């Protein structure tokens, strides 16, 4: 047996999830979300982690064609013995993808580009860089995030996530407005997070210039230290956004914004964590979330 067999087990478990009892579904979800644990865990350990009884795990294993948990666990143990349980060697993996034909080459190029962009972006950023920017954000009055085109979506996503626990975040331009007007009353108490890569958008550059003149602190996300917004910034994060396609990649931008936000939350008070929990609890109470069987 090998990892392909364990993958087939997971696929079958996923397809038959709705046919399981509510308790067995809890066990199955844990296995689907933590497959590496199966090969090194006893039935009782998996049951405890999934918050079910051991015989529930056994029933789940039998549902997908095994005699019991030990039989179910064997493909996962074999994958570990073969050294296949961890993420495979990237070069070998990409070569295997490329062998699948013309579209396989494109697939491999896109995967390789996405991984490379994240690695190169974070290779040039230190923990101290993120801590400094997070401190600036946490100690300000308002945070404005500005991007145009696809970066408007990236800025909006960052703002959406931040506002689950904090209220002073705004994506600009707002509907029916423009960035210059949205930043009209911003000053040294505020922060502007600006995003633009080659070819640099003149409206973003102009907004940063005007905000800088007003005393606003600038956090720039761009692809070069020579970028016009980077040269005006108080904090600069250099991005790698190369891609085999004609459009720039957003992978490293999203990853950096999510990491920056995590640093802001880590810098904040416990009150923010409480607000995030309350925000999601409210959504649950209002029926916004599909509840899993308990």
From TrEMBL:
<dbReference type="InterPro" id="IPR046348">
    <property type="entry name" value="SIS_dom_sf"/>
</dbReference>
<dbReference type="GO" id="GO:0003677">
    <property type="term" value="F:DNA binding"/>
</dbReference>
<keyword id="KW-0238">DNA-binding</keyword>
<dbReference type="InterPro" id="IPR036388">
    <property type="entry name" value="WH-like_DNA-bd_sf"/>
</dbReference>
<dbReference type="InterPro" id="IPR047640">
    <property type="entry name" value="RpiR-like"/>
</dbReference>
<feature type="domain" description="SIS">
    <location>
        <begin position="133"/>
        <end position="278"/>
    </location>
</feature>
<dbReference type="InterPro" id="IPR009057">
    <property type="entry name" value="Homeodomain-like_sf"/>
</dbReference>
<keyword id="KW-0804">Transcription</keyword>
<protein>
    <submittedName>
        <fullName>Transcriptional regulator, RpiR family</fullName>
    </submittedName>
</protein>
<dbReference type="GO" id="GO:0003700">
    <property type="term" value="F:DNA-binding transcription factor activity"/>
</dbReference>
<dbReference type="Pfam" id="PF01380">
    <property type="entry name" value="SIS"/>
</dbReference>
<dbReference type="InterPro" id="IPR001347">
    <property type="entry name" value="SIS_dom"/>
</dbReference>
<dbReference type="GO" id="GO:0097367">
    <property type="term" value="F:carbohydrate derivative binding"/>
</dbReference>
<dbReference type="GO" id="GO:1901135">
    <property type="term" value="P:carbohydrate derivative metabolic process"/>
</dbReference>
<feature type="domain" description="HTH rpiR-type">
    <location>
        <begin position="7"/>
        <end position="83"/>
    </location>
</feature>
<dbReference type="InterPro" id="IPR035472">
    <property type="entry name" value="RpiR-like_SIS"/>
</dbReference>
<dbReference type="Pfam" id="PF01418">
    <property type="entry name" value="HTH_6"/>
</dbReference>
<dbReference type="InterPro" id="IPR000281">
    <property type="entry name" value="HTH_RpiR"/>
</dbReference>
<keyword id="KW-0805">Transcription regulation</keyword>
């Amino acid at each position: 047996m090998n990892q392909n067999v364990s993958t087939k087990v997971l696929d079958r478990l996923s397809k038959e999830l709705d046919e399981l009892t509510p308790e067995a579904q809890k066990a199955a979800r844990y296995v689907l979300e933590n497959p590496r644990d199966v090969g090194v865990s006893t039935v009782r350990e998996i049951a405890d982690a999934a918050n079910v009884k051991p015989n529930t795990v056994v029933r789940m294993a039998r549902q997908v064609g095994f005699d019991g948990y030990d039989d179910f666990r064997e493909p996962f143990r074999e994958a570990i013995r073969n050294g296949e349980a961890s993420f495979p060697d990237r070069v070998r993996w990409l070569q295997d993808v490329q062998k699948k034909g013309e579209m396989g080459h494109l697939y491999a190029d896109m995967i390789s580009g996405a991984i490379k962009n994240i690695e190169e972006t974070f290779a040039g950023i230190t923990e101290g860089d993120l801590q400094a920017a997070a401190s600036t954000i946490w100690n300000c009055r308002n945070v404005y995030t500005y991007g145009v085109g696809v970066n408007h979506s990236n800025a909006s996503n960052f703002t959406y996530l931040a506002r689950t626990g904090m209220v002073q975040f705004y994506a600009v331009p707002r509907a029916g407005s423009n960035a210059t007007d949205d930043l009209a009353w911003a000053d040294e108490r505020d922060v502007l997070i600006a995003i633009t890569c080659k070819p640099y958008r003149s409206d973003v550059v102009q907004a940063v210039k005007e905000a800088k003149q007003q005393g606003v602190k600038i956090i720039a996300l761009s692809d070069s230290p020579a970028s016009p917004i980077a040269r005006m910034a108080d904090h600069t994060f250099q991005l790698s956004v190369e891609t085999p396609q004609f459009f720039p990649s957003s992978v490293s931008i999203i990853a950096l914004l999510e990491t920056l936000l995590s640093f802001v939350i880590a810098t904040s008070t416990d009150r923010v964590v409480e607000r995030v929990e309350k925000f999601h609890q409210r959504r649950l109470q209002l029926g916004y979330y599909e509840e899993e069987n308990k």
